[in-house]
Amino acid sequence: MFRLARYAPLLLLLLAAPPAAPPAAPPATQPQWTPPTPLGATERVDDRHLMVERQMAHPRDGRLRVRSAAVLDAMRTVPRHAFVPSGVRRRVYEDTPLPIGHGQTISQPYMVAYMTELLDLKPGDRVLEIGTGSGYQAAVLGQLTDQVSTIEIIEPLARRAAKTLKDQGYDAIRTKHGDGYHGWPEHGPYDAIIVTAAAQHLPPPLWKQLEPGGKIVIPIGGVYEVQRLVMLEKTADGKRRSKSIMAVRFVPLTRSD
Fold it and tell me: Residue 51 pLDDT > 60, yes or no?
């Protein structure tokens, strides 16, 4: 005969137990950032692919290869011809600097790619460019992270670059007319800083605005000197570690004073 009394204590425990908690909701995920597709991306595609293959991925003149797949993809994507005056567009995918007015130049494509690779950018990194020029280098950076700030001291160039970047779809890039020597502390500290003009020394404000673990790539030297491309890293305890990369030739860093 079934005796209910034997199981009474167990039944009471089951009845008194709180209901099982519903399964925890999965953690919210941030939407993945997608690099912009510039307006001119469908133009002169073959020229850009040939430029990347011959000048960066497999250079035949003894230069170091650019190995970063992300950087090479950025160079294939950004329409360099949209960032230069119409009079020099036929030469825009040659490996040479080109004049952009006001005594300034757009750097040769290889140098843009190699300096960008040295920064070792990841999506979300905050990067500051000193010397916007035509806006091309900023656009390449804008293919790698959505946190790009860039400063140009020559006002007509700053206005033109800001318009070109907007027209090409780089709405997230912050542009400013000002003296880049002093950096842009409002948007720092930065994970990386790139200087696209030669300075006599590393500007102290830029070092101050660099995050520990961050990198600065800068040409050092005067107009009539042998300039060196230098990469500086800030260690966790704020010390400086520097490496000379190669001999280069850049226009001088212009100061407001």
Answer: yes
The continuous run of DSSP H or E covering 216 comes out as strand 210-220
pLDDT over 70 percentage in the chain? 88
CATH number for the domain whose boundaries are 97-248: 3.40.50.150
How does pLDDT run across 109-165, given as a tens digit for each residue? 999 999 999 999 999 999 999 999 999 999 999 999 999 999 999 999 999 999 999
Say what the pLDDT of residue 21 is: 63
Contact status, residue 189 vs residue 211, Cβ threshold 8 Å: yes
For residue 61, pLDDT over 90 is answered with: no
Instruction: Report the alpha-carbon distance of residue 192 to residue 180 in Å, rounded.
Output: 14
Identify the three-state secondary structure at position 182: helix
Identified catalytic residue from 107, 134, 242, 256: 107
Q: How many CB atoms lie within 10 A of CB 207?
A: 16
Instruction: Classify residue 90 as left (phi > 0), alpha (psi -120 to 50) or beta.
Output: alpha
pLDDT at 29: 60
Residue 115 burial (CB count, 10 A): 23
Q: Which two tokens stand for residue 147?
A: 């946190």
Reply yes or no on whether 244 is catalytic. no
Would you list the domain boundaries of the chain?
Answer: 97-248
Residue 180: phi, psi to the nearest 5? -70, -15
The neighbouring-strand residues paired with 152 are 177
Query: How far is residue 92 CA from its own chain's centroid?
Result: 21
**pLDDT number for residue 225:** 86
